[in-house]
Specification:
The chain has about 270 residues and is mainly α. It has 13 helices and no strands.
């Protein structure tokens, strides 16, 4: 918890972030999961956000592949996953460097990196349909898969933000909806599992992180259930637009290194020290 953040505010932001991840992983509003990072970075140190999210993402991936255990194309999964290992190693090396030099020194740099990704993905969310229509006529080859895999591995290791990269590439392969969703789910399951030993090796995931995650496990099935429930009851376009605005606001405040929670708390009462 960041200094000066009231516990109730902390838990509201964290639980909301995990719920959004569950909704996105269920197949509803793909890409919305990027909102989790700005939300959690408002109330937690950046290295703890990345570390705490990984075990919970793996649980969400397990739930996703359970529902889509037969819907997968191994050739497409491996075409992205295998080169992603290069990106994962590069991302882990970046985190190792940050840990050696001190998170206080590079925390703002990571926040701004996530801010740039958030702003870019906010525009991806709002233009998702147009983007999918554009890539639908494109059939990229092996070189594109390698580039997409490396970039997905790196951004996923740094900020769990590879969703649009993998989704856009898989969409170009002309799979049906069920096969597409299942193939994406299996790809992320392997990527996140591959990241786990690196996170453990460089000390990102510590016993306190796992204890914290245990307190949040109950949110995982609720988020998944909400995603399935919203699928037939709520406009995905409207939901995506709301998420886009929130991601854009979160990305701008990360890029400017301004914590909106502190700003609101300062208005409501004495500024936290």
């Amino acid at each position: 918890m960041e200094p000066g953040i009231p516990p109730v505010v902390f838990w509201i932001f964290v639980v909301l972030a995990i719920l959004i991840q569950g909704i996105s992983k269920s197949g509803f509003a793909g890409g919305a999961g990027i909102l989790s990072l700005p939300l959690m970075m408002l109330v937690m140190p950046v290295d703890k956000v990345t570390a705490c999210l990984l075990p919970l993402l793996i649980l969400l991936d397990m739930n996703a592949i359970y529902h889509h255990r037969r819907n997968k194309n191994w050739a497409h999964v491996l075409s992205v996953f295998l080169p992603s290992l290069i990106g994962i190693v590069l991302g882990a090396a970046a985190w190792w460097w940050v840990g050696r030099e001190g998170i206080d020194r590079y925390g703002v740099v990571i926040k701004r990196f996530v801010g740039v990704l958030s702003i870019a993905l906010a525009f991806y969310i709002v233009g998702k349909e147009a983007a999918l229509q554009w890539v639908e006529r494109w059939r990229p080859g092996r070189r594109t898969a390698i580039v997409a895999g490396i970039f997905a591995g790196f951004t996923s290791t740094i900020a769990h933000a590879a969703g649009p990269i993998v989704s856009l590439y898989m969409f170009t392969q002309g799979m049906g909806k069920s096969l597409f969703v299942g193939t994406v789910a299996w790809t992320f399951m392997l990527i996140n599992l591959a990241k786990l030993p690196f996170y453990l090796g460089i000390g990102l995931i510590e016993p306190e992180v796992l204890r914290f995650d245990l307190a949040l496990v109950w949110v995982v099935p609720i988020g998944s259930w909400l995603g399935h429930w919203m699928h037939t009851r709520i406009s995905e376009t409207l939901f995506n637009r709301v998420v886009m605005v929130l991601v854009l606001i979160g990305g701008i405040q990360l890029l400017a290194n301004v914590n909106l929670v502190y700003e609101v708390l300062a208005i409501l009462g004495p500024a936290p020290r």
